[in-house]
Amino acid sequence: FEDGLMGTLNAQAQWNQLEKQIDIHAIANDGPDAITYIDGFVSPVKENIDLAIQGRGTYVEFLHTYASSFLSNITGHAYGDLRLVGPLGEMDLLGKLVVNAQATVTALGTTYTLTQDTVDFVHSDILLHDVTARDIYQNTAQLNGGIHHDNLSDLTFDLDIKTDKLLAYSMPSDNGDIFHGTVFASGDVEI
To answer: Does residue 170 contact residue 110 with C-beta atoms inside 8 Å?
Structure first.
C-alpha cells in the first residue's frame, strides 16, 4: 500500500445492490506479527467510504508517501483501530494507534525512535500527547501537539518539543553539505 510492504492481501469485495456500495472484507497478512484487517464499504453512488482498519503489527512504511518531504527511512509497526470515513473527496482518519517506529528527519540527519507511544486520530488532526522520541544515543524528548491535515493532504504542524539533551543535527563532513557537524540541544522548541 502506497509503496509500503503490507504482506499478502486476501480481499473479498462484493457489490451490495441494496445499499449501492462495495462491501469489503480483507486481511493483509505478512506473518503472525504483522496483520491488518479491513472491513467496511466504499459507495461510488453515495460517494462515501467507511472502512474499519485494525492494525495488529501493521507496517508503517507506507507513510513515506505522505512524509517523504521531511522524513526518510520510516520503519516500524502500529497496533490499534482506525476508521477511514467520509465523502470520497473529504476523507478522514479516526481512532487510536500504539506505535513502535523509527524515522530520520532528513534535513537534520537525525533518527528518532518511538516505543509504545499512542497517537490519536481525530477530525483533521493526528495528535501526540507526551510522546517520547529517542535519538540514537537514547537521549529523549517529549512531543506534544498535532499534525493537522485537510482531508489527509496539506499537512501542517503544531508541535511542542521539550528535552534536556537530544541529538538535533548530525551531518558528516564527507556528505558535501556546506553545514556539517553534530549538535546536541536542550530546551523547548515549537514547530
So the answer is: yes
62 three-class SS:
helix
Which residue type sits at 106?
T
CA distance 71 to 74: 7
Please say whether the dihedral angle defined by the alpha carbons of residues 30, 33, 39 and 44, taken in this order, is positive or negative.
Answer: negative
pLDDT, one tens digit per residue, over 39-62 is 999 999 999 999 999 999 998 887
Q: C-alpha cell of 143?
A: 512531543
User: Quick one: cell of 49?
Assistant: 467510504
Q: What is the DSSP string of 63-92?
A: GHHHHTTTEEEEEEEEEEEEEEEEETTS-E
HSE-up of residue 22 (Cα within 13 Å, Cβ side): 13
